[in-house]
Each structure stands twice: as structure tokens, then as C-alpha cells.
Amino acid sequence: MKKIQRRAALSSIGAMSLGITALAKGEIVSEPYKIKKQTLKTDILVIGGGTAGVIAAIQAGRAGRKTILVENGSQLGGTTTTGGVAFPGIFFAWGNQIISGIGWELVQAAVALNDDTLPNFSIPHGKNHPRHQVRLNGQLYAMLIEEKCIEAGVQIRFYETPTQIMFKKNNWIVQTMGKGMITEIICNQLIDCTGNAYATSIAGFTVLREAETQPGSLMFEIGGYDFNSLDLKMIQARYQETIQKGELVKTDFRNNIVGVLKSKGDNISHVMGADSTTSESHTLANIKGRTSLLQTLRFLRTLPGLEKTKLVDMQNETAVRETYRIDGHYKITHADYVTGKKFDDAVSYSYYPIDVHDENGVVPDHLKEGIVPTVPLRALIPKNSRNFLVAGRCISSDRLANSALRVQASCMGMGQAAGATAVLANLQNKTPLDVSIKDIKEMIEAHGGIVPV
Ligand SMILES: Cc1cc2nc3c(=O)[nH]c(=O)nc-3n(C[C@H](O)[C@H](O)[C@H](O)COP(=O)(O)OP(=O)(O)OC[C@H]3O[C@@H](n4cnc5c(N)ncnc54)[C@H](O)[C@@H]3O)c2cc1C
Predict the structure, then answer these.
(1) Which residue has a Cα nearest atom 42 of ligand 1?
(2) pLDDT tens-digit series, residues 286-321
(3) Distance, CA of 174 to CA of 165 (rounded, Å)
(4) At 290, which helix (H) or strand (E)?
(5) Measuring from each residue's beta carbon to the nearest atom of ligand 1, which residues come in under 6 Å?
(6) Which of 82, 407, 412 to mutate to test the pocket of ligand 1 (most atoms within 8 A of CB)?
(7) Would the pTM of this model clear 0.90, i.e. be above it?
(8) Which domains does the chain have, with CATH numbers?
(9) CA–CA separation, 430 vs 418, rounded Å?
């Protein structure tokens, strides 16, 4: 009953936004379309509805704050869903759960609704850390998190992106551009969860990036062949010849066509220089990923045993590992991460090997037994900012620390911490840096999260 009411409400919004005054049968006359301009007021604005942003928004909404979530894509979940990296990790370290809360609740819900299975976290992953990542159905997860946002009272705004962000009288004024709409959003606290520190940069704060960034990946699955009956030596030799002729690019699949076939394509493509920060750079990353996959599919189908190779699935975006990071009040260093430094203002845990991909692939550097790194609040706050937080892969960290901090469970933990901090800052009329860590931890725990002790 409730769902039907929601549907009816949604369809009337659609009609109003198109300027259709009365619904009638047959041809409908409508005025020429004009760009709609509007102003919205909210307590908390989250920009970027990906891995971290959804959790930040749900936390803010569940804590009773008026919350808007702006996302430039068509669904929530970001890299976890649209990027196809539907294997969030890692929630457990050394036999104990270290990240729980809203992210873990949603991951478990997606697993249960698809009859998937959780890894057995009590068996140590050893050098095979992906064993502790949770394989889930990305599209199902996208639907679930959308439902949870709506239930938490979060107003979702798809297809919109900020064009201007200004601070005035203790509020942020954010102008967004979307399809047929220009919206001014006045908010008290802003959380940048774009993964690229995009809102941070537009707001005028410094962002940092490496001269060379990790490659992105286009996620896909191939099938139609029997791996065990293939002549792998011949295939690798033909692959090298084709690269020599300039018809395939060595770095696109880590120079390892056998790996592509064995994994059926799982998380193996490399799109060098992939950058999702602007529509132009993301377009290029998408086209590069698709061009390379198409050429490789055609090549595979010329080889004995692979004539029937087919594309089973492919994401519609190249997923991006690394672009910009904020210049925060504290920069988490590699030494902090690998020694598991316990910060006084730690608000969440993180756990992953140091994991830098380059053109040849990746050799993870595992943490020493017992080490569980922490994330200080100061790393979520750009220098010189007020009423501004960041969560997700673009937090303040050096490159090596970032290569581990960027993973999904860690982003979810940070998202919840940023959401809780924004709520308290709004309620207490403070800037995030001045909110008491004790209060933040209490709110996170009250919403099921785990906080560093
Ligand atoms: C190929 C690949 C493999 C990976 N493997 C793993 C793994 O095995 N396990 C693991 O846990 N992690 C893995 N990661 C890392 C992890 O998935 C990401 O680092 C993490 O999901 C990033 O979360 P985020 O919230 O910072 O960004 P995202 O999830 O990317 O979310 C950012 C959101 O912001 C939106 N956005 C961006 N710019 C704007 C804008 N200007 N306006 C409005 N909206 C905007 C985007 O559309 C997106 O929805 C992998 C990453 C990649 C790319």
C-alpha cells in the first residue's frame, strides 16, 4: 500500500516537472521547455552518491537531519555498482569485525536478498585477501541503497553536478546543473563524496594528485570457451605478435591474455590514465576501455578454441582508482597505515594491503599480523575549510596509504563518520573540526558502527 502511494507521488512530480498541467488521453500540448530554476534549503548536502556518499547521506537522514544527495549518474553506488566493483572489502581484520554500521547492514541485505554467501571471515585470508571481499549483485545493491536513502528521508537528485560552491553566512550555497534544471542548494554542512575531491576543488580548497595515477578498469565478463582445452602457449605467442604489430596495446590487459581467459575478464583490464573528474576525462576513459575490449574480443575470436568467445556482461563506465585527494588537516602516511597508528581523533578503521596498480598489474604489500590502521577526523577535513567534510577515496593521505584506504569497507566507514560529524556540527552550530570526538563516536555506535578504541 505504502509503495503504491510512493509511486503515485513520483508520477505527479514527473508531470509537474515537464510543465504538463492536466493529464489527458491522446496528444498533450505543452509549453516550450524552459530551464527550471529553483532554490532548496537543507541541513546537509552530500555530493556524490557512491560507496561513501550513500552511507554518509543515510547516516545524516537517519539522525533526523534534512539531507540532499546529488549524484551525476543515474543510480547510487558509484564504483560498487556503476563501476562494477561489486566486491566490497574488507570488514574483518585478524578475526574481528572492524567495520560495521550502515555499510555492513546494506551489504548483508544485498547478500541475503540474492541468496549469495558471505566469506568465512574466521579463516585467515593469508596472501589471498580478495577471499575476504563480499561478492554481491551490484544492480541489486543499487536498488537497495536507493530504497534505504528514501526510507531515511534523503532527497536524491540524479543527473546533477555542482557548477559553483560558495560559503556565505555560515552556509554553503551550491549551484547545480542538471537536465533542464538549475538548482541553488543552501546547506549548513557539505560532504564531498565524489571520489575526485571535485566539490572541494570547486569550493576553492587545494587538492593534490600524483604525476602518475593508477590505471582504471572496465569491468566485464567473457565466456563461450573451455579454458582447460586451450593451447595457452600458442595464444600468448599470437598475442605478443599482435602487440608487436601495434594492433593491441600491451598495457590494456597487463600483457597477460592467459590471465584474461582464466579469469573470464574479472577485474583485469587496465585503462591507463583513467580519470573520472570531468565529463571530458571520463568520456575518454570510457572510450579507451571499450575500444580495447572490442579489439581484444575480435582478436580472441581468430584463435583456435576461442572462435565462439562472447561478451557475457560489461559495465557502462570505466571504474577509476585514483585521481585527486584533498589537502586535509592531517595527511595519513604510509608509515601511519602500516604501523596501525592510533590517532586521538580516529573515527573509523581501515584494513587492506598497500595496493598500487601499475601497467604490469599489482603486487599487494600485506599488513603485518595484528595491524589495524585508523582514520583520523582531520583527514576528512580540507585545510582552511568550515562546515565541510570529505569521505571516500579522496581523503587526505599519501599515495601509498591511499592505495589501501580507498577500498570500499573503509570508504563506508568514513562515510558514516562524515555523516555523523556533519549531523553534530549542524545540531551544535559548529564546524566539523570543533565537534567532540566522543560525541561522534557515540553517534556512530548508536547507528551500529564500530569506532576505534
Ligand atoms: C577497478 C577497481 C577495482 C577495485 N577493487 C576493489 C576491491 O577489490 N575491493 C574494494 O573494496 N575496493 C576496490 N576498489 C576501490 C573502491 O571500489 C573505490 O575506491 C571506492 O568504491 C571509492 O568510493 P568513493 O565513494 O570514494 O567513490 P565512488 O564509489 O566512485 O563514488 C563517487 C560518486 O560520486 C559521483 N560523482 C563524481 N563526480 C561527481 C560530480 N561532479 N557531481 C555529482 N556526482 C559526482 C559518481 O558518479 C559516484 O557515484 C577498486 C576500484 C577500482 C576502480
Answers:
(1) 161
(2) 999 999 999 999 999 999 999 999 999 999 999 999
(3) 4
(4) helix 279-300
(5) 47-53, 70-73, 78-80, 83, 85, 87-89, 133, 161, 193-196, 198, 216-217, 267, 319-321, 392-393, 406-408, 411
(6) 407
(7) yes
(8) 44-211+323-446 (3.50.50.60), 217-319 (no CATH)
(9) 14
